[in-house]
C-alpha cells in the first residue's frame, strides 16, 4: 500500500509537473452532511452533463452526485429503443445517411435575459457536425440540426443572452462543401483552400425550433470554444481559436509556434442586419434537419439545401481579431458582460479583456495588422489586465455571484479562484486528477446560483475501485461558500464529460411531464382501445396494432405471418399513470426493445428469419403479473396459406392450422 | 403521492425541498371525516356526495362509453366476469356512486386506505391504475355504468 502511495506521488510529480498533491486536502469533517440527501428527499440542483464519446447527456443530482438518467442524443440507446424504433430512427439521419453515434462535448441551458429559464438544453455533435435540442419537460431529444460547410463542431452549442441563437464554430477547417466548391484538393494546399465557418442557428422563441440563419466564413483557424455576450456585450459573440499558423500536420508542434492566436469578436447583431439587407451569399448545400413531432409521436427528417454566408473580408465590422496568448481554449464572459477571459493552454498568465476597451479600440481604429483580410486589434488596447502566475494549463472559467472567477488548470491539476476586477488570486484547490471543464450552477449566466463548483476531471487513476484498464471518469464537488473552496464529494460519471451546467431543481421539476395523454396521441398507428387492435397485411408488410396495459398485450396470439414479411409492431401503452412504461421485445429481432411511456405509441420493425413460433413479452416490470405479460406469433413458410388471425384470451383451437 | 403513510409519522430531512411523502398537518382533522366516508361506503377522495336522477343523461352515457373504451375496457368487462379487474355488471347496486367515482379518480389512496378497495386488490392482485380520469369524466363513466345496469 505504502509503495502504491509513493508511486502515485511519483506519477503526480512526473506527469503533472509542479506540486506534489497530498491526501491532506481530502474532504473536511462536515463534508458528508453537506452532500447527504436523505431517502425520499430531493437534490437542490439538476446537473446536465455532457457524455463526451458516449454521445449522450446525463442528469445528476447535486449535491448528492446521484445519476438519475442518461438522455440518448446522438447515439442509439437499445434500452429505450432510441435510434432503433421506427419513430426515432429519423433523429439520427444526416447528409451522410444514418449516423448512430457522436461525441457530445458541451451543454448550453437556455436563458432569458441571461438567466436560466429551464426550457431546453442544447448539445453539440463534434464529429459529424450537429446541434441537438433537448426538451426539459420530457428530458428527450426534440430536435437535431446538421451543419453544412463544417467539420469538427467543437465551439458549440453556446447561446446568446435570450437564446436568440445557438452557435457552431469549426474546430477543423477544411475545403467547404457547398455546391460549386471544389473539395478535391491536396491537404498541403491548406492555406489556399481550407476555410473555417461560424454558424448562427436561430432558435424560435416559442417552439425552440432551430433554423440555420446564416454562416460567417473565416480564415482557416481552428475555433475552439465560445461564449455569447450579455448586458452591454449582448450583440457580440466571442470565439477562441488556435492554429493561426495554419498547420495541417503535427499540430501539437506546428500549431504552437506563435506567441499569440486570437479571440474572434463577432458582432452578430450587425451580421443579422447584413443578412436582412441581402448582403449574404446564398449557397447550395446539403444538411439534415430532424425533429420529433409530439403530435404524431414520430420524428421527421428533412434535407435542407440553402444557407446564407457572410464574408467578413467585405463586411469588415462583423468580425475583429483580438490577440490572445498561446493557443487559447476557454473563452468565457463574466456575469456583467464586461469581461472576457481567454485561457491560453500554454500561457503563464490569464488575459482578461474589457468589452468597453474593445469597443474603444474599434472606434479608434486601434489595429495592429490584418490577418487574411480581418482586422486585428492591439492586445494592450483590449486588455483589462492579466492574472499573473495563476497555474499551468488554464482551460475554462466559471463565475460566482460575488465577482469571482474560477479557472480550471489541467497541467497543474487545480481550480484557482480569483477576482475579476482586481485580478488577484484568492484561493486554489487541487483536483484529482487533471481537471478539464468545471461548472458552477448558473456559472455562465448573468445570475450565477453559486454554492458549488464541480470539477470534471480527465484522469481517474486510483480514485475508485479499479475496473480493469478502462475506468469511469471522475467528477468532484467543491463547496465555494466562504473564502476557501472545500472538497465535498467524488462521483463517477458516464462517457467522458466535458462541459456541464447545473440549474436549480425548482426551475425544472414543476414542468416535468408525467404521461402522454391518450386523447392527444395522433400517431397514425396508435390503438387507443383494445377493441381497435388489429393485424393488417399490406403486401409483404404486416402491421400489428397492439395495446399494452397491466398485465396483457392485445393481441397476444398472432398467426399468418410468413418468411419474407416485414412485421411492424405498433405498440400503444394504454396506461395513464406516471412511471408505468411497458417494454416490448421479440426473440431474434436484429434490433432493440421498445420502452413505451404511458399514452405513447412506438414501433418495432421485425424481419422473421425462420419458420416457427416466436414469443414476445413486456420487458419492464410493471405489475404482480408482469411475468404473464407475454404472447406468441407464428411464422409460416413463404407462400403459406395460413390466414392472418389474432386474438387475446381465446382458448378454443382455431381452424386453418396447417401451413400448406 | 399525497396519502398518509401507515404510521402517520413525518420524517425530518436535511434539505430544503419537500420530500415526496410528506403530508400537511391539516390532514389530521380531516381524518374523522374520512373515517365517516369509509364507514358509509363512500370511499376516500374528492367526491363526497353525488345525486343521481332518472331518466339517465344520454349525453353523459355516450361520453362515458367513449372513456370506458379508451381507459377502462382493457381490464373491466361489462358482464359479471372478472377479467383483470371485476366485471361491471351490477356495480352500481353493489357500490355507492361516491365510492365508484373515488375509486375511478383516486385509486392509489383507495387501495391504500379503503377496506373494500383492498379486498378487491387481494382478489385481483393487480393494482387498479390511475388512468388520469377527471371528476367530470368519472361522473360520465358512472352514468354509463348505470346504463349498463339497466337504468333508463
Largest chain-chain contact? A-B, 33 and 25 residues
Morphology call of chain A: globular
Number of helices of chain A: 7
CA gyration radius of chain A, whole angstroms: 28 Å
Beta-strand percent range of chain A: 35-45%
Count of spatially separate domains of chain A = 2
Average pLDDT, all residues of chain A: 94
Tell me the total number of β-strands of chain A: 45
CATH architecture of the largest domain in chain A: 7 Propeller
Quick one: CATH superfamily of the largest domain in chain A? Answer: YVTN repeat-like/Quinoprotein amine dehydrogenase
Fraction in helix of chain A? under 10%
How many H/I helical runs of chain B? 7
Low-pLDDT stretches of chain A are 1-25, 656-660
What composes the largest sheet of chain B?
Answer: none
Secondary-structure class of chain B: mainly alpha
Structure explained in plain terms:
The complex is a heterodimer of chains A (660) and B (152). With 660 residues, chain A is mostly beta strands. Chain A folds into two domains: 2-511, Methylamine Dehydrogenase, Chain H; 521-647, Sandwich (Immunoglobulin-like). In chain A, 8% of the residues lie in helices and 43% in strands. Chain A is built from seven helices and 45 strands. With 152 residues, chain B is mainly alpha-helical. Chain B has a domain at 52-148: Orthogonal Bundle (Cytochrome Bc1 Complex, Chain D, domain 2). Chain B has seven helices and no strands. Chain B is globular. Chain B starts with 26 loop residues before the first helix and ends with a helix. Mean pLDDT of chain B is 84; it is low at 1-25.
